[in-house]
Design a protein that fits this description.
Radius of gyration of chain B: 21 Å
CATH topology of the largest domain in chain A: outer membrane lipoprotein receptor (LolB), chain A
CATH architecture of the largest domain in chain A: Clam
Number of domains of chain B: 2
CATH superfamily of the largest domain in chain A: Lipoprotein localisation LolA/LolB/LppX
Number of helices of chain B: 11
Oligomer: heterodimer
Order of helices and strands of chain A: HHHEEEEEEHEEEEEHEEEEHEEHEEEHE
Largest sheet of chain B: none
Number of strands of chain A: 21
Mean pLDDT of chain B: 50
Shape of chain A: globular
Radius of gyration of chain A: 21 Å
Helix content of chain A: 10-25%
Largest sheet of chain A: 12 strands, mixed
Shape of chain B: elongated
Strand content of chain B: under 5%
Strand content of chain A: 35-45%
Mean pLDDT of chain A: 80
Order of helices and strands of chain B: HHHHHHHHHHH
Structural class of chain B: mainly alpha
Chain lengths: 338, 213
């Protein structure tokens, strides 16, 4: 365990070192053969296909917001089905299993298993079609050569935002498989806000899909919790944006329960989700309760920013992997129509 | 260089309780006999402490580092103002990446105790990363290590006091407020609403323990 952590610390340090200099200087060293020029969409499709076609086992490290989190990953697929097991190595013990868009998170300390359907994971091809214009307009792509990550040669792709309403990204894409082996989120100065990377990775590891399914099915002794969600529209709930936030399109809207909210509030939380193709923002709107909601705040952890505001009788919590300015723009545009 | 790396590997395995038999005995001897091995042993334990707790046992060196860091953060900042979207869009394609705009400086100086603890944790990690790097580089390329060690340590955006109506940033509530944690978890459920982060985003969200799932 400590070995993984020491390796990730070294990674964190190299991210720090990279981030000290401006982007022109911090470009990873170019080595090896030049990569063929691909469009942003071709890159994104390639990255996505890798997870559908390749099996792998590795250690994944996320550094950001002053925190370092690590997990062991098992990923198997057969071309149509994907299964994944994520075993946390830091923080509270938990095991997450995913079969396509079905996700179970086992929390052994509380003997609870959370069941969720992550519809967004099935959105990919449509997402790319519906937001490709935004991706092209609001991000510039640049291939930066190649670099080794976790022992694998990777193409380095930089996605630089064309305005200040979104962060930039740098992705390391394994040359043979197209798997994203490292991903950095960068602020407006090109400094690393968050980094997710494999510190160790093996392809074609002998893990059977049946074995993972069996583990995913072992829920005896656990209490099953499932968030209640009902699809709706912002319009039907009386909400609108008086002006759109450039590049961000509404993706979906739910009336949902939120763990941790009082029973009376649970059914009344609205989640309105936006995406520019690469970054996503959730607007949570619930009735304002003075003793619960307090003062407006702006918060940040790694690349995830949060803003809370009172809107008359309502309380807004905006969350997204975007700059605070973007959340402010959403808060200023949101209006009640009923 | 390779031998040094192997030795550090053994000390790490010892710290994890993974060594047995002759390898265990040899590594314990090495830790007892050399200062370098003892420093490595200490570092790995500090790394473990930091990851297990928000209140790591920091050394005098870390404290000195922290003081410098706090000072630097305090010097950096001014609060943000409200945002006009039109100002933020389109006109600075090349410069935004490189130049921090005048009206978009993050403020610092969050005196809240927990926030500083968060920073203390990270600062210690960063300090140890430098130490680990220096040690790992000890027997090899001597020119590379000092150069890296002299670089100021990157800290993600400085912590700021809360500013109603403004855009100052305060980290501490991110992990303290269970309701907010629940909303963050709900947002994570849709973390795949990103063409880039589809598969990677799921792993990122499942791995990141900044927020309880």
């Amino acid at each position: 365990m400590i070995r993984y952590i020491a390796a990730s610390l070294l990674m964190a340090l190299s991210a720090s070192a990279v981030a000290q200099v401006k982007s022109a200087v911090s470009t990873p060293s170019v080595s090896g053969r030049p990569v063929a020029q691909r469009s942003v969409n071709e890159w994104l499709q390639r990255m996505h296909d890798a997870s559908r076609q390749r099996a792998y086992v590795g250690t994944f490290v996320v550094a950001g917001g002053g925190r370092l989190s690590s997990a062991r990953i098992w990923h198997v697929c057969d071309g149509t089905q994907q299964m994944e097991r994520v075993e946390s190595l830091t923080g509270a013990p938990r095991s997450t299993f995913r079969r396509n868009d079905q996700v179970l998170t086992f929390l052994p300390e509380s003997r609870v298993v959370l069941a969720e359907k992550r519809e967004s994971l099935g959105l990919f091809p449509q997402l790319l079609q519906s937001t490709s214009a935004a991706i092209g307009q609001y991000y510039g792509a640049r291939e930066l050569g190649s670099e080794r990550v976790a022992g694998f040669e990777a193409d380095v792709l930089e996605l630089r935002p064309t305005d200040r309403l979104r962060f930039g990204y740098r992705a390391w894409i394994e040359k043979n498989t197209g798997l994203t082996v490292k991903l950095q989120t960068l602020d407006s100065q090109g400094q690393v806000l968050e980094q997710a990377a494999f510190s160790e990775l093996k392809f074609e590891a002998p893990v059977g899909m049946a074995q993972l399914e069996q583990m995913m099915g072992r829920t005896e002794g656990y209490r099953l919790e499932k968030p209640e969600m009902r699809k709706t529209t912002a319009e039907a709930q009386g909400w609108a944006l008086k002006q759109s936030v450039p590049g961000f399109q509404p993706m979906s809207c739910y009336q949902r329960s939120v763990n941790g909210s009082p029973q009376s509030q649970e059914a009344q939380t609205l989640q309105w989700i936006f995406s520019d193709g690469l970054a996503s923002v959730s607007l949570f709107i619930e009735p304002f309760v003075a003793e619960r909601h307090g003062q407006p705040k702006n918060l940040a952890m790694g690349a995830t920013h949060t803003l809370t505001r009172r809107l008359g009788a309502w309380w807004l919590t905006a969350v997204g992997e975007v700059p605070t300015e973007t959340l402010v723009a959403f808060a200023q545009a949101l209006e009640r129509q009923k | 260089m390779q031998e040094a790396a192997r030795n550090h590997e053994l000390v790490s395995a010892l710290a994890d309780g993974q060594l047995r038999g002759e390898e265990f005995a040899r590594t314990v001897d090495w830790v007892n006999e050399t200062d370098e091995a003892r420093r490595t042993w200490h570092t790995y334990h500090l790394v473990g402490d930091v990851l297990r707790s928000n209140e790591p046992m920091v050394s005098a060196r870390d404290v000195h580092f922290l003081q410098g860091l706090k000072l630097r953060l305090q010097q950096e900042s001014a609060p943000l103002h409200d945002v006009r979207t039109t100002v933020l869009v389109a006109d600075e394609q090349d410069s935004t990446w490189i130049r921090r705009p005048n009206d978009a400086k993050y403020s610092s100086a969050n005196d809240s105790r927990f926030g500083w603890k968060m920073l203390a944790g990270f600062a210690s990690l960063a300090t140890m990363a430098v130490m680990v790097w220096q040690m790992a580089s000890g027997g090899g390329d001597q020119s590379a290590a000092p150069q890296l060690a002299q670089l100021p340590v990157q800290v993600p955006q400085p912590v700021a006091g809360s500013a109603p109506g403004g855009t100052g940033v305060d980290r501490q509530r991110m992990i303290r407020d269970p309701q907010l944690d629940a909303l963050l978890a709900a947002h994570k459920q849709f973390g795949g609403t990103s063409a880039l982060q589809g598969p990677t985003g799921f792993l990122r969200n499942a791995t990141f323990d900044g927020v309880a799932p």
